[in-house]
Design a protein that fits this description.
Number of helices: 3
Distance between the termini: 25 Å
Strand content: under 5%
Order of helices and strands: HHH
Structural class: mainly alpha
Length: about 90
Amino acid sequence: MAHHHEHSQAIVHRLSRVIGHLEAIKGMVEADRDCSEVLTQIAAAKSAINNIGREVLKEHIQHCVVEAVEEGNQQVLDDLSAALDRFWK
C-alpha cells in the first residue's frame, strides 16, 4: 500500500545523513583507525537509526494505525505488533 506522510522527506534526509556516516565509519576501518573511535562512531550511527525508527513508528501510529482502527482493520495492528518485535530485537 503506497502512502505519503508529512515527514517523509525529513526521514529520507536523515537516512541520507546516516548513510554518509556509515561510509565515514567504513573509511575509518579501512584506514585502521583506533577501534574505540570506530566503536564510538558506530554507537552514534546506531542511535541515529533508532531515532529514525522512532519517527517512522510515530508517523505510522498517528496515521496508518489510527485510520485502521477507525476502519476496524485488525491486520494493521497485527502487522504493527510483528514490526515492533523485529525492531526491538
